[in-house]
Amino acid sequence: MNIVPNNDFWNLLDRLIESSEIVIDRPKGTAHPKYPDCIYRVDYGYLKDTSSMDGAGIDVWLGTKGDRKLDAIICTADLLKKDSEIKLLIGCTEEEKSIIYEMHNESEYMKGVMIQI
User: What is the pLDDT of residues 39-80, one digit of tens each?
Assistant: First the structure.
């Protein structure tokens, strides 16, 4: 089977972002609330009034490009939480995408894959 990119998927996520407030509750340079050795190197937050697998808002990484354009997602699997989620990468530089990818793969308990447009 030859699978082609699904532009409708990306367009739907763009609409979701456009219609939602981005809340940054873990700014760059702050520590994770449960794992103080984990320091956020890119702003991290969620889309207000949305829901994800963990019952909280859909997670977002907000980069420094300033355009608030979605061009990648990270799909994660977490053995400690026993869940999986997607995280939206909005306005991220290539360097920030690498940092985010590394953060989701440095633990033996969480792994992630990045899908880019």
Answer: 999 999 999 999 987 778 999 999 999 888 998 999 999 999
Instruction: Provide the Cα torsion 88, 20, 70, 97; round to 10°.
Output: -40
Beta strand segments in 21-109, E: 22-26, 43-47, 58-62, 70-78, 83-90
Task: Give the whole-angstrom CA distance, residue 15 versus residue 33.
Answer: 30
Distance CA 54, CA 98 (A): 24
Cα–Cα distance measured from residue 94 to residue 63, given in angstroms and rounded to the nearest whole number:
10
pTM (predicted TM-score): 0.92
